[in-house]
């Protein structure tokens, strides 16, 4: 009877010892993917480490450095992180167009993948404020008037006026239309000339 109990205990222990986990993937398999690991074709290693959760900032390493290792630093310079290391982050590039005024500058966002897209500048809406000493009975020709103030705002507002009547604003802005096609724009304004709307 004692031998039967010992054999049963050894058999039960062996079954639990060879039991595997229910996970379908091994944690090492992430290094065998073509995007983030060892290339099955060339054998070179490539891995990416996320450095932040709030912004897309990654640190990458590639072991394909034989050309850089055989060259002098003047011909094939290494990056500031070291041989094979690269930090991918986006950047904003500005084009000042050779002028001193910042109002005509263009800004371009270059993503970590190298895709560039034009950015709209803040304070892109130019306003020109006019005042009239007499009352306007019709919409005046603003090109023939002298402006009281010129500036830039984030959105359309008329909070900067000093008078409650007989004033006018001219707003100028640019709209970036990234796709060809038909666009329809709507606007509403409470325009009073005298007491008539």
What does this 3D model show about the protein?
A hairpin with a 5-residue loop joins strand 5 and strand 6. The longest helix has 16 residues, at 2-17. The protein has helices at 2-17, 66-70, and strands at residues 46-50, 58-62, 85-88, 91-95, 106-110, 116-119, 125-131, 149-153, 167-172. The chain is built from two helices and nine strands; from the N terminus they run H-E-E-H-E-E-E-E-E-E-E. It has a three-stranded antiparallel beta sheet with strand order 1-2-3, with no helix packed on it. Strands 4-5-6 form a three-stranded antiparallel beta sheet, with no helix packed on it. Strands 8-7-9 form a three-stranded antiparallel beta sheet, with no helix packed on it. With 197 residues, it is α+β, with helices and mostly antiparallel strands. It folds into three domains: 30-87, no CATH class; 90-119, no CATH class; 122-197, no CATH class. It is elongated and about 80 Å long. The N and C termini lie far apart (108 Å).
Percent range for helical residues?
A: 10-25%
Cα shape: elongated
- Based on secondary structure, the structural category is alpha+beta
**Gap between N and C termini:** 108 Å
In total, the number of domains comes to 3
Rg (C-alpha, Å):
34 Å
Spatial order of the strands forming the largest sheet: 1-2-3
- N-to-C SSE series? HEEHEEEEEEE
Number of helices: 2
Overall pLDDT confidence: 70
Query: What's the total number of strands?
Result: 9
Q: How big a fraction of the residues is strand? A: 15-25%
Main beta sheet strand tally, sense and closure: 3 strands, antiparallel
Low-confidence residue ranges: 6-18
